[in-house]
Design goal:
This protein is mainly alpha-helical and 171 residues long. The chain is 66% helix and 5% strand. The longest helix has 24 residues.
């Protein structure tokens, strides 16, 4: 624990933590995130490295506001990276990123919707169905609600189109 000192100058005022020559992973991540150039083909690997650095590990109640701030920064970066991949038709890379978002933040309805649309682009009907049922399950367990009307409408239209495609495939 070289470089870490804990002292209590006044017993009634709590403790003082002094860190010297310590590498803090959050500070490294923030520094790299701030220095990222705009996303393009030549910089996407650097963006991907910073995206993968985030773990979301911080369950201390006292750090809740900081955790939420970091979460929002990371989600914003994840969205930018996903949009870049989609614009460049790198759907597998977009799916991998969205799966990590879903893994860390399972209660974000829009992520399930994005994954359904991406799987549709790859003609992966089973994965579209899976995302729909995972979303329904999550919403029921966490909030006791159904998916939004937008999600339900999209899913109904997709089911109808998919049924027509299946019929035409057999003819």
């Amino acid at each position: 624990m070289d470089g870490v000192k804990i002292s209590s100058p006044l017993l009634s005022s709590g403790y003082k933590l002094v860190v010297e020559n310590i590498v803090v992973d959050v500070e490294q991540w923030l520094s790299r995130l701030k220095l990222l150039p705009p996303i393009q083909q030549t910089t996407v690997n650097e963006h991907e490295q910073v995206f993968q650095m985030y773990t979301g590990d911080c369950d201390y109640l006292w750090a809740e506001s900081e955790r939420e701030r970091l979460r929002r920064l990371w989600l914003h970066h994840a969205q930018q990276l996903s949009e870049f991949y989609i614009r460049n038709e790198s759907y597998i890379a977009a799916i991998k990123g969205q799966e990590k978002v879903q893994e860390l933040f399972a209660d974000a309805e829009d992520n399930y919707f994005t994954l359904k649309k991406l799987y549709e682009l790859l003609n992966n009907s089973a994965a579209v169905e899976e995302q729909y049922w995972l979303l329904k399950k999550m919403l029921q367990e966490h909030l006791a609600v159904e998916p939004s009307e937008e999600v339900e409408d999209w899913y109904r239209r997709w089911k109808q189109i998919n049924a027509i495609i299946q019929v035409n495939a057999f003819n």
